[in-house]
Specification:
Structural class: alpha+beta
Shape: globular
Largest sheet: 3 strands, antiparallel
Number of helices: 2
Number of domains: 1
Strand order of the largest sheet: 1-2-3
Radius of gyration: 13 Å
Order of helices and strands: EEEHH
Helix content: 25-40%
Distance between the termini: 31 Å
Strand content: 15-25%
Oligomer: single chain
Length: about 80
């Protein structure tokens, strides 16, 4: 089995990503308190299903990959 996603710089120890799901089925994703993405309908459901049962660090990695942040290695 392949190695799980790794946070080599330990950025996600700070829990930089958060999310909020509302009753309309939308999921709002925040980075350092700023809204960076809104997921609707199937994409919101898929996201919530994917993070179900994950610990906080793994959830951080999923949100980073989903939003496209931390791809370039120069984010701080």
């Amino acid at each position: 089995m392949s190695e799980p996603q790794i946070d080599k710089r330990n950025v996600f120890d700070e829990e930089v990503f958060t999310y909020q799901a509302n009753k309309d089925g939308k999921v709002f994703i925040f980075w350092r308190g700023k809204q960076v993405m809104i997921l609707k309908d199937k994409s919101a459901q898929k996201f919530l299903a994917k993070i179900a049962g994950l610990d906080e660090r793994q959830t951080q990695l999923v949100m980073a990959k989903l939003t496209g942040n931390f791809k370039h290695g120069n984010e701080r």
